[in-house]
Description:
Elements: E1 2-4, E2 21-25, E3 39-44, H1 46-49, H2 52-64, H3 73-85, H4 92-101, E4 103-108, E5 114-120, H5 125-144, E6 152-158, H6 167-181, E7 184-188, E8 193-200, E9 203-210, E10 214-222, H7 223-231
Helix pairs in contact: 2-3, 2-5
Amino acid sequence: MATHISMATQCIYCGISEGRTRDHIPPKNLFPKPRPANLVTVPCCQTCRRGQSLDDEYFTRMVTMRRDVAEHPAAAQVLEAVHRSFTKPKKRRFIQALLQSVHDVEILSPAGLYLGSGPSYQVDLDRLCRVIKRTTLGLYFKEFGVRLPNSHGCQVYAMDGFSRSDPSLNANLTRIIEQAVRGKSRVFGEKVFTYWVQQVDDATVWLHLVYSRVAFLAFTLRSTDLAAGASR
């Protein structure tokens, strides 16, 4: 059973078309069955919904195959379903591309100690961030009762995309994360998906955590501020 938000009939993503369908946020395929009762659905139009299921499927595959989420019980259950899906003929092209991207990488402990090497695979971080951006927009609607204004935009960053070797960057990220976690938090399932949100004037900062390991930072702020930040 999902929590339905009925404060708007327009699509919360484009704000133009009528939201004739419902979009699950966070993506429901991150959760093993039976799924939690507090999943949220938001109004969505058919145009904006196009391609969402493929993005959600890609997101779930890439995240559940990570080495650092292997001990999460929900991730392990979902990974079984992911492995079963690989036997379907229509997934053959995806499997071939995945195998071609496999390469060995150094494995480090959380403290930075070298533990050896192991296989890794390439991930389209932009595609993962696209799912988290949609999730952020949906959760914004859930939290504030309105869709994000047209004057504002949303920017998402995968924490895996940041260099761990830049002390000044790490310090800035730490401050942003500390600001986010001082805000409101909510957990879906057994820590399958957790988010924190903090409002600062007319902007918001979000920390999203998937399977207690995979982190994303998201911001909503005026589009002019987003453009100014991108040009620096």
